[in-house]
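Reagents: none. Just compute today. Diacylglycerol kinase.
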Amino acid sequence: MAVVFYYLIYNPAAGGGAAIPIFKQVKTVLDRRQLPYAIKTSRYPGHTNVITKQIGNFNTRDHPVLLVIGGDGTLNQAINGLSGTRQHDIPVAYVPAGSGNDFARGIGMSEDPMHALDQILQASEPITIDIGRYHERTRNETGYFVNNIGIGFDAAVVNAANHSDSKQLLNKLHIGKLTYLFHVVGMLLTRHPFPVAVYENGVRHFFHRAYICTTTNIPYFGGGIRLYKPADPTDGKLDLVIVEWFNIVSWALAMLQLLRGKTPTSRATHIFHTNKLIVETSSLEFGQMDGEEMGTRPFEIEFSIASQQFWIDRSI
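Predicted 3D structure written out:
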């Protein structure tokens, strides 16, 4: 097998600094095995996007792999930066070092960083995994997501968690996912339902009291919270999950079914399993993409499916 050259794309801010010791361990392993690599440190928000765009356009190494050390947001930036470049088909590897690490969980790779590194170094060829493509019509913005795009409740939780004073402390204690859970109750007391229109195969569906509206590629969001168990990043489809709010009891029961991986039977739950759809909201709502904030505004988003080459051997 040809020797792989690794571009180590490292975000020291990921996981509230938890990525720093993980990066050092990864570097030690690569040095011990005498594997070739170059270090590219992400130093400010959006820098990972710039780094991978430069690599995709100007790489001269044979058999390159982008080895991302960070959270799901860092991975998102890496893939978006690589897209549209001359070498957009460079495989991406991922060592989970963030707060949530839902992508690793969702594709069945190890959540343990060093085991994940073993899965990367064991790989001999790339595998193809689905990712989501979005076009936000209000801003004429197009990009990709690896986990999900959420509007409403989950996005409000992400916003609160990202601005929480406790997030960095919990990350240092390796329980960063609890940050999201802490803010769930607070959001339940303050958020309100909102209208959503969904267009699938030319048919308009309208929901008056949406509370969760999440288009997902994997079963999880919010640091390991199961949203929809059947979501599969290899089936060529996305899943839109809408849960309406009629009252606290019906909403809680609907969410309990989803969290337990049961088949949804509640009238509050609506599932779309498709490769293309449009989601529109008319009110000001929070949005999140792969655990990163999208701001607050009305959304008009066209979703479709895409694919990405990943460098990993999930058999070990």
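The chain has two domains: 5-131, 134-307.
Action item: order primers for follow-up constructs.
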